[in-house]
Amino acid sequence: MLEENISLSQLMTLVINFLLGSAIIIGVGKGAEQDAWMAMIISTVLGLAIMYFYYFLISRLPGKNLYEIMEHCFKRYLVIPVAFLYIIYFLYISSRVVRDFGELIASAILPNTPIEMISFTIAMTMGYILYLGIEVLGRTSEIFSPYVVLFVLLLTIFLLASGNLEFSRIEPVLGEGIIPVAKAVFPSLFVFPFGELIAFTVIMGKVTRFKYVKRVSLMGTAIAGLLLTHATVLMVMTLGSDAMVRSNFPMLSAARQVSIGNFIERIDALVVFIMMLGILIKGSVFLFGALKGLEYIFRLPYRYFALPMSAVVSLFSVLISVNFADHLKEGLVIVPYFVHMPMQFGIPSVLLAVLLWKKRSRKRFGKNGVKC
User: φ, ψ for residue 264 (rounded to 5)?
Assistant: First the structure.
């Protein structure tokens, strides 16, 4: 198979844009209402632990991805069914990500455009990028990431200048106690977006200078967490907790409040750009995870599957839910317990336990099976 590598800076920007992804579209921590920012801070700390967990798993066998680690732990005939589960999982989450963006564009930007066409366009773009290679995805993320930070800064300045930010809207702090914050953190924020970093177990092995991967991946997670916390504060201070909870796209609703001298108004384009880049990166990373699984099973270069699987993602994104309300309920209520938890933490925990047991056995008995 063709060897590909991405740089440390590309890994960092991929992590940042991946975590922003759909989280910045639908908002995070809504269950905590005005304390959503606090839930986001706690989740960021947990997110750092989650990222370290995935790094620790991959670092046991540097250079190998999730599927190769599974084969190291178990026989291939046992691994293939589990690999198929991960392929379906990655394709399913990629489809959900595409659906998030399709709903945003269809309902808020281009209401007369069929969601099928929007989903097909973004999915095939993802497929074409991955057909060109993971390096192209890394460069795309690296090139456009500075604009994300710039646009978030501009949005903050515009909201301040237009007088829409009211500090009183984040009060009272813990007015309903710690329970709503805890419920917002687990399982919702625990598995979305941070638990979804499981997709990077397929990418980390391709990073140059692997010894710095831990530092860079944790830094990317921390930066993304801070950006999401900042975005959450902006949404609460602009809309208030009630309006934020009711809004399907609170970040976009907040941006539409900007009005400076009847000249600078409705800066939707800035927010849509941030969301579009995040969706492109996140959907592509999940799709790449599925493609590498197909490469492992069929022993063919993953590029062969890029465009067909992107078409599958496009189709799934339309069929998974009948409407946006059903889509959100499925993703925030059902999926965390029955899909995310076993795929993000259950199977990886078993793999790590087997790896550590094998390492301990080798140390105890030596290479020739003789007890030391």
Answer: -95, 110
